[in-house]
Amino acid sequence: MTTIRLTKEFSFEAAHALDGYDGPCREIHGHSYRLFVTVKGTPGEDPRDPKYGMVMDFGLLKRIVNEEVVSRFDHALVLRASASGDALRRLLADRFGNIVAVDYQPTCENMLADFARRIAARLPQGVRLHSLRLNETATSFAEWFAEDNG
């Protein structure tokens, strides 16, 4: 059996602020994120199956990532759900409709771990999440690999 990796690229715009951070990223600022999702598996071997030869339909991967990540985070303000930030989040929510409160500091690294959990849980049987890469800027990115997170 041949193992094949498939990668699909996604993009979304989001803003965040790092609660309590001691640098400029404590301020609300935005990024044009690029997310690369790589899955791996064995191509289907039943010639009668219309998906014969596919590890996974790219359309299904697109749907999963759009539902779990892009539709939630695109044009959102992502903030840590901390007690100190409750009043600010309520104030912003009165004016803006897409405030996403997360239970972690919304760094590129923590967002990747969250995305990995969300995506992996939705993949079809026999397909595994291999890696994620999240570009926060054109020159800065973080990566998540399944082999490191067994």
Automatic annotation (TrEMBL):
<dbReference type="GO" id="GO:0070497">
    <property type="term" value="F:6-carboxytetrahydropterin synthase activity"/>
</dbReference>
<feature type="active site" description="Proton acceptor">
    <location>
        <position position="25"/>
    </location>
</feature>
<protein>
    <recommendedName>
        <fullName>6-carboxy-5,6,7,8-tetrahydropterin synthase</fullName>
        <ecNumber>4.1.2.50</ecNumber>
    </recommendedName>
</protein>
<keyword id="KW-0862">Zinc</keyword>
<dbReference type="InterPro" id="IPR038418">
    <property type="entry name" value="6-PTP_synth/QueD_sf"/>
</dbReference>
<dbReference type="InterPro" id="IPR007115">
    <property type="entry name" value="6-PTP_synth/QueD"/>
</dbReference>
<feature type="binding site">
    <location>
        <position position="31"/>
    </location>
    <ligand>
        <name>Zn(2+)</name>
    </ligand>
</feature>
<keyword id="KW-0456">Lyase</keyword>
<feature type="binding site">
    <location>
        <position position="29"/>
    </location>
    <ligand>
        <name>Zn(2+)</name>
    </ligand>
</feature>
<feature type="binding site">
    <location>
        <position position="16"/>
    </location>
    <ligand>
        <name>Zn(2+)</name>
    </ligand>
</feature>
<feature type="active site" description="Charge relay system">
    <location>
        <position position="75"/>
    </location>
</feature>
<dbReference type="Pfam" id="PF01242">
    <property type="entry name" value="PTPS"/>
</dbReference>
<feature type="active site" description="Charge relay system">
    <location>
        <position position="136"/>
    </location>
</feature>
<comment type="similarity">
    <text>Belongs to the PTPS family. QueD subfamily.</text>
</comment>
<comment type="pathway">
    <text>Purine metabolism; 7-cyano-7-deazaguanine biosynthesis.</text>
</comment>
<keyword id="KW-0479">Metal-binding</keyword>
<dbReference type="GO" id="GO:0046872">
    <property type="term" value="F:metal ion binding"/>
</dbReference>
